[in-house]
Amino acid sequence: MALGSTFAALRHRNYRIWAGAGFVSVIGTWMQVLGVNWYVLEQTRSATSVGLTVLLQALPTLLLSVWGGALADRLRAKPLLIAAQALHVLLAAGLAVVAVTGAGGLPAIYVISLVTGAVSAIEGPVSGRWSSTLVDREDLGNALALGSLTNSAGRILGVSAGGVVVAAVGPALLFAVNAASFVAVIVALFAVRERERDRGEDAVVTDAVVADGGGIRAGFRYLLRQPVVLVALGLSFVLGSLGRNYQVTMAAMIDGPLHGGASGYGVLSTVFAVGTVLGALVAARRRELGYGMLIGAGLLASVLQIAAGLAPGTLSFAAVILPVAAAAVIIDTTVGTRAQLDTDYAMRGRVLAALAVTGSISAAVGAPLLGWLSEHAGPRQTLVLAGAVTAVATAAAGVALDGLREHRLRRQVTLVLAAPVVRRPARRVAAIATRVVQPATRPAALAGPAVAFAGPAVAFAGPAVAFAGPAAATPRPAGSPSPGPYPAAMRRPGAGRLPSSRTVRAVPDCAGGAPARSRARSAGGTALVEVTPPDCLP
Fold first, then answer.
1. Per-residue pLDDT tens over the stretch 88-116
2. How far, in Å, CA of 224 to CA of 206, rounded?
3. The pTM is what?
4. Quick count: other Cβ atoms within 10 Å of Cβ 135?
5. Cα–Cα distances in angstroms (integers) from residue 445 to residues 274, 412, 491, 513, in the given order
6. Could you tell me which residues are beta bridge partners of residue 117?
7. Looking at residue 38, what DSSP letter applies?
């Protein structure tokens, strides 16, 4: 696939504007996350308080995402997004005021974090549905992959720049920068041309969707009738809970068997971030992100997770973590793509909300479970066990998806094996083997004394007869057709063909030994031919 196709979604003007503003916003968001964590840690010197702040931002996703999905399917996205960005500006400015003046202290930080999480929970499905209208259907997967690339790169830049700024001037400037980044998103929303948005799917609504209406329960009823999407979401939950929470397992491995310390954890975090960027690039280069890609990436991540548990040192662990991070992004991008392309357009917001809830629940369930297993069973054993479980779950999901999709994978494998590029080497090998074991002459040629063989009967190794006697050069009358390499008796119609069910036997060997045997392939199959040396012919 050409390099230009890797960034195919950027051909759309609206998407270029939205992606640029989103990149700026992601950088600001991660700067604010770093600033909030630093401020809370500086005020309390407690990692538990930092974890509480993170929980307050993530908890609304579990409760409010479904409402955001319903709003995304029923209301116009642009006004909702503008209102959400304006609220983000005010909340970020409020954090800056608290950091500078100290007004409200930690309770104010907690309240602002909770409200920020609530706004993000409602905004997420609306933003996802809006983004899907900025490109056509063919470029939707590429747009989602580039979105993953934007998030990964923005996270790296935001955390890196935020670390420098917070050490120099404190967290207040980080909050101010984030407020300005949301202003850039508002400007981008006004710059998007409505007439250039893709609305080709607006009419693709099934009768069942119309009958269900636009509520939250209608979204759940619709999902229950989409077994393929349910299997994909279930696999995403398993892979996300047991195979994705590497912030827990990496810390357990560094603090335990690897003995890497803080510097080692920093190296692993950087490697993981680079892996997410590479995974986004791989997903962007794919013309189509299908369920085969999902199963393949899931199996690869599971096997590599087992290998990570067996890694002897920090460098080898990092070498395995890199492709695991890439596979994780490919899995997320593929699930997001299929969730949108394989569902009705009128239900897209609620499907995206279900996807967000799945991700939040997998993180909420998987992180404590992996932490408990690491403490009681050991980090290595936890990685190996979790990798084995996810591998089995991925294989089971692959079988289920193949059955639900009318065994498409099985048919594709059959077509690949039957393709000419696969059959050609096999046919060539069979032809060579046939020439090697084919008899040096046809049975009908054993009827005259003029035939002279160049070697003993057991040494026939060529596809044609090598004549060395006078019969090979027997003169023919002028004007008669050329006899070719065989006598005239062999040039009648059908001569020389060996039925698969017939065995041609020569006269008994005059020397008392068994006649030489060889196999010849005919149009009907393979026949056993017993060839008698010429000296024994009458």
1. 999 999 999 999 998 888 999 999 999 99
2. 15
3. 0.62
4. 24
5. 74, 48, 10, 21
6. none
7. H
